Amino acid sequence: MRYTYVLLLLPLIFVSCEEAILGDFPANDPESVFELFWDDFDKHYSLFIERDVNWDSLYTVYRPQVTATTTEEELWIICTNLLEHLDDGHTFMRKYNPLETFVSGGQTLNQQSEQEFSTNLVRSEYLATTTDLPSEDIFYGKLRDKDIGYIYLAHQSGSDASMIDQVIDVLKIHKAIIVDIRQNAGGSAYYAARIAGVFADSEQLIYTSATRNGKNHDDFNTPTEFYSQKAGDEQYLKPVIVLTDRGTISAGELFLLHIKAFAHVTQIGTTTSGDFGRTSNRRFLPNGWTYRYSVGRVLLPDGQNIDGIGCIPNVYIKNTIGDIAANNDKVLEKAIDYLWTTYGIE
Amino acid sequence: MYKFLIVFISIFLIHKSLHAQNSNIDGISSKSLNDHIGVSVGYNQGYFKDLLFSPLNYIQGGALYGLRYVRQSPNDKNLIELNMQYSSGELNVSDLDNFTASYLFGKFKLGYLHRISLIKRNNLKVYLGGEYQTQIHSLEWLDASVAASWFGTHGLRVKALASYQIQKRHQVQTALSIPVFQSLVRPPFNVRDEFVDENQDNILAFVFRGESASLDKYFAIDWETSYYFELSKRLDMLFTYQMIYQRVFDVHRLIQFQNQLNIGVSFKF
Question: B112 and B177 in contact (C-beta within 8 Å)?
Fold first, then answer.
């Protein structure tokens, strides 16, 4: 009988022994947090080689700046200064209370580019008709007094990419279409490929994608090839202008790689962000901060890496904040002018 | 592994079917109550660390639901057990409320146990056998696109079970199982890769993307002890405690320790 009692009471021993089982909770002091942060990037970040960053030498610069008495604010500045060397728009760090986010790769210029484009301006000054697809964050219509269709894609992560088919079905009567992906925040590579498929004139290799899979900076899995594919009942093969800016990022840029491969497509605007690869899970630090980084690598069919470079437009033009304030979208105006001078379309 | 499972279930069903036919031929139904089916509810408390997900230590807690079927041979020589569990709840980090993640897991077990005749005590029965077990755990923070991870195992375990009749209506039972061959399912090195992205809407693609793991890669111990109280000839009430410890020895270490307490009823027929 006493064995029975022992058996029934034994479970009590196993409750409340967290650290004995899991090991110590990572220390929440400045030096330990920095070490954990630096080491996680060292083991997982994918673009040290492509972006020509010597992570070990950066350690020798920044690690001595962190001491046991470093304040949280000082540690934030040290860590974000370290991240800025990556110049990677996919890499960011966030702290809470109060909420603050640092994005690597020219945060000030990114914020400025947001003000150099306005969807409200496009709707109010350039479109004769506007239809919204809220589930996809798409709006489309016809330009005023022109035989030109217009589609705005805010990101590449809606609920159903095939909704683009009905947009093309409406706009196919026009002589040209302007696809606007300025400030396109990215999303899914597969969604992007499906949208681009309605403009496809051919099926061809667009890029390869690989993900870091080991502790060495050059450990990657076997690259996966991504091809353009015709999608929808029919493809739109008349002239297409795609508008880009610095805020066109990630899967927005993958969409651009697809669509620019087609002969009837011209890119107008500014160079895109240059952040193509896959991103990590959100990562956690014991002081309550989170961060994210790139874990993938995208190469063009010829092996060229344009991470950190971006897609360079066929026709370069840039709005200023003043242009937008004056109700003038010079980039869109240039696209309209290009269609007239190149194709005689108005 | 899955062929084994299908063969096992088929043999069981054929056996059951033949038994039913014999009963009909004889024109009498079986008087012995060899089949037990039960449901249970409880609480799953534990500790969790998965370096693929986070370097932090998590405390796990959530509701637990179980369904169990046991068939004993008329002479108590053999036992067949089928067990399913589901749990969902939270993973909390001490002093960091905004890092609370959610988890869910499901488990399926099918075992065969044979009574060891060497131990001859009227109120003690000892069984030894094997068990096929599939378990899948998933966890996410905010939503799966922000931070997620998963792990699971499919494979065979050795299992020992002892049943002790304390008094006429009181019984305790304890069982221990240890994996011998497992297919271990975990995310790739950086959690996401081309395969994961391409199959994010196809759970089965993840669930069965495992690699074989011997004891130096994956170790687990599953100990369960139950107290049965016979409410009536056909109905038992039971309290069960289960302790599960799992560890993956890898660059991305995983440790899970769960205490599960549940209460249930078992119907005998």
Answer: no
Q: What is the DSSP letter of A257?
A: H
Q: Across the interface, do B172 and A224 touch by the CB < 8 Å criterion? A: no
- Inter-residue contact A305 to A275 (CB < 8 Å): no
Mutate to test the interface with B, among A1, A7, A213, A283 (most CBs of B within 10 A): A7
Q: What is the pTM of this model?
A: 0.87
CB-nearest to A14 from B194, B197, B243 is: B243
Helix (H) or strand (E) holding B262: strand B254-268
C-alpha distance across the termini of chain B, in Å: 31
Residues 6+ apart with CB under 8 A from A140: A130, A131, A133, A149, A150, A151, A152, A167, A170, A171
- What is the Cα–Cα distance from A24 to A31, expressed in whole angstroms? 16
Encode chain A (346 residues) as per-residue pLDDT tens digits: 555 566 556 655 555 567 778 887 889 999 999 999 999 999 999 999 999 999 999 999 999 999 999 999 999 999 999 999 999 999 999 999 899 999 998 778 888 999 999 999 999 999 999 999 998 999 999 999 999 999 999 999 988 999 999 999 999 999 999 999 999 999 999 999 999 999 999 999 999 999 999 999 999 999 999 999 999 999 999 999 999 999 999 999 999 999 999 999 999 999 999 999 999 999 999 999 999 999 999 999 999 999 999 999 999 999 999 999 999 999 999 999 999 999 999 8
Query: Does B191 contact A190 at a Cβ distance shorter than 8 Å?
Result: no
Letter string b/e over residues B51-61, b meaning 16 or more CB atoms within 10 A of that residue's CB: bbbbbbbbbbb
A59 with A100: CB under 8 angstroms? no
Q: Dig out the tokens for B150 from the structure.
A: 């998963």
Residue whose entry in the numeric block shows the structure tokens 């096929």: B132
Residue type at B256 in one-letter notation: Q
Q: Do A22 and B193 touch (CB under 8 A)?
A: no
| Contact assignment for B55 to A280 by CB distance below 8 Å | no
What are the structure tokens assigned to B154, written together?
């499919």
